[in-house]
Amino acid sequence: MIQKLSDAEYEIMKIIWGNPKKATLFSDITDEMAAQGRPCQKNTLIVLLSRLVGKGYLDATKVGRRNEYVPLVSETAYQTSQTQHFIDKIYEGSIKGLVTNLIKGDLLTQEEYAELKALLEGGKIEK
C-alpha cells in the first residue's frame, strides 16, 4: 500500500500533480499556494517537501540553486490505494457495502446515481 499523506502533504502533491510541466519548482508551489489563499512559510514547505521525498512521493533534483520536484507516485495510484484502504477498513473489503451505503444513505445526486448505474451496466458516462 502507498503510504498515507498528511493533509498538508496532500495539498502540495495536488499542486505538483496539477502542474502540466514535468518538474515543479519550489517557487511554483509557493506561487500556487498563495494564489489559493493558503501561503506557507518557506521552512515549513521545505520540511514538507523533504518528507514527501523521504516517503517516495517525489524526486528532488538540484538545478543550480533550485530544486526541481518530479512526482514518483501518480495521483491515480494514490487515490486507488487510499480508496482500497478505506474500503478494507470501513467496509471489510466489500465494494458492495460502499455502494449500498452511498445509495441507501442518500449520498448520491440523481445525476451521480444515473452515471453510476450506467457505469455498472457497462455503459459510458456522458458528460
Secondary-structure map with pairings?
Blueprint: H1 7-17, E1 24-25, H2 26-35, H3 42-54, E2 58-63, E3 66-71, H4 75-91, H5 95-104, H6 110-120
Antiparallel strand pairs: 1-3, 2-3
Report on this model:
By secondary structure, this protein is mainly α. The chain folds into 2 domains: 7-71, Arc Repressor Mutant, subunit A; 75-120, no CATH class. The chain is built from 6 helices and 3 strands; from the N terminus they run αβααββααα. It has a 3-stranded antiparallel sheet with strand order 1-3-2. The mean pLDDT is 92.
Main traits of this protein?
single chain; 127 residues; mainly alpha; Arc Repressor Mutant, subunit A; 2 domains; three-stranded antiparallel sheet; 6 helices; 3 strands; elongated
**Main β sheet profile:** 3 strands, antiparallel
CATH architecture identity of the largest domain: Orthogonal Bundle
Number of helices: 6
Poorly predicted regions: none
Brief account:
The protein is mostly helical and 127 residues long. The protein contains 6 helices and 3 strands.
